[in-house]
Amino acid sequence: MASSESPENLLVGYDDRDSEPDEESLEENPISLKRSLGIPGGIAFLIGTIIGSGIFATPKWVLFYTGSVGMSLVMWAFCGVISLFGALCYCELGTLIPKSGGEYQYLLKAYGPLPAFMYSWMLVLFMRPASQIMVLLVFGAYTVEAFSPGCRSREEFVPLIKLLAAAALGVITFVNCASVKWATRIQIFFTGAKMIAIFMVVFTGIVRLAQGYTDAFENAFNGTSPEIGKFAFAFYNGLFSYDGWNQLNYVTEEIKNPNRNLPLTIFIGMPLVTASYLLVVTGYLTVLTPHEFLTTDAVAVTLANRLYGVMAWSIPILVACSTFGAANGGAFSGGRVAFAAAREGHLPRFLAMIHTKTRTPLPGLIFSSVISCVMIIPDSSSFEVLLNYMGFFTWFGFLLSI
């Protein structure tokens, strides 16, 4: 940002209330967002945003509510199919309405300015910051766990966990403000790191299955819950782990050739995520009995402590990398939400400004980061509390859009 140019020359407004951007105009307009996401970057962005803390935090609850190993695996597959269908619906919306902003843009087109205005404020002031903080709190907890096993659940370590979360948010915001390319490169790197964690668990599961550790899968459907309400809770927890399938629609204006690349990215990325989740849960169950699975607070860490010996620290580190990548993807799309709403006049106009050199919505990114930092301060800000508050609003927005 160091420059002799005045701030008004570095940040310029983008008024788009009277016209919709097409690919040619967006490429030629010097103050528009730059199309820099190809298929590899898009897949990394999609997978990196979806695979965060969920697959390491919620499998026990899916098993708890379904009541059996077999039904829990069916639930994971079902959640993956539902998420794929949702992503394909959003894919069509993204090609019909080629604007960044996701649900905000679709509500604006479908229901008019008032519902879109209300949703944009709810999204920017609560939903996006809450989602970001949830992931970063897990990042802080697993970073502490790597260096001091067993301490992430102790009360005295909560301030340190929140400090680490805030520091990570600062780094992510700086990178996303400085360069779209660097944000994409970081996303690709941390997506690779989380896939290493996934591969380690999957490989462990394959080896254990080959060695005959199949007790958990015998009579796999015994104990299946007969209560429909419990299946709803299992479905809710499973869907949380797939949350992020809509994120590409927040950055539609930065995808190269979106009519081609958006569907391809969805068709490649979503099956990879679903297959990874099924294999990871299978890997967990080759090491832990269903009872142990339900009584541990961190399934992946318990698995690592039992099998990896002195290398057990690697799993908490890789989980932290996974959540950092998810937070980076959330920041990337979150700044575009504020930008899109401000461009339509539904948020303060300065949030619609773009940095002329980096072509990033710098005010929107900083604004989202500040709201997230404020949200992390209260003692009541915890993963569980934020999940309970934001889950309903998130899926209500999906329902209205589709």
Automatic annotation (TrEMBL):
Membrane topology term: Multi-pass membrane protein
Acidic residues compositional bias, start-end: 17-27
A Pfam family reported for this protein in Swiss-Prot or TrEMBL: AA_permease_2
GO cellular component: apical plasma membrane
Entries under InterPro entries matching the protein: AA/rel_permease1 (IPR002293), AminoAcid_Transporter (IPR050598)
Record-level Gene Ontology MF annotations: L-amino acid transmembrane transporter activity
Location of this chain's protein in the cell: Apical cell membrane
Region ranges (Disordered): 1-28
UniProt key word Lipid biosynthesis: no
Annotated family: Belongs to the amino acid-polyamine-organocation (APC) superfamily.
Name this protein carries in UniProt: b(0,+)-type amino acid transporter 1
Organism: Stylophora pistillata
Gene name of this polypeptide: SLC7A9
